[in-house]
């Protein structure tokens, strides 16, 4: 037996589901490409570019910190990978101090 209310609910769900998914992705700052690839913010290792985006620093600053051995990294082939926990530990240990006048 086809219930008209269940058909309406299914139609509404089909319309609203992609809209809600996009709103959630946007609120979390995850692009559609990242969502499809499953590269959200729960990765254990980050590339230099991802570390820069995550920290708000520039890629060149991340590379400089690695060269100065202030931030740990591992080279896998040609890629440089940074442990998310190492990056977060570095950021917590080096807060920006605001000078008050």
Question: How is this structure best described in words?
Answer:
The structure is a single chain. With 101 residues, this protein is mainly alpha-helical. Helices cover 57% and strands 11% of the residues. It is elongated and about 70 Å long. Helix 3 (48-55) packs across helix 4 (59-67). It folds into two domains: 1-38; 43-96, Molybdopterin biosynthesis moea protein, domain 2. It is built from five helices and three strands; from the N terminus they run H-H-E-H-H-E-E-H. A hairpin with a 2-residue loop joins strand 2 (74-76) and strand 3 (79-83). The termini are far apart. It has a three-stranded antiparallel β-sheet with strand order 1-3-2. It has helices at 4-28, 32-37, 48-55, 59-67, 84-93, and strands at residues 45-47, 74-76, 79-83.
Helices and strands, with pairings:
Blueprint: H1 4-28, H2 32-37, E1 45-47, H3 48-55, H4 59-67, E2 74-76, E3 79-83, H5 84-93
Antiparallel strand pairs: 1-3, 2-3
Question: What are the defining features of this structure?
Answer:
101 residues, mainly alpha, Molybdopterin biosynthesis moea protein, domain 2, 2 domains, 11% strand, elongated
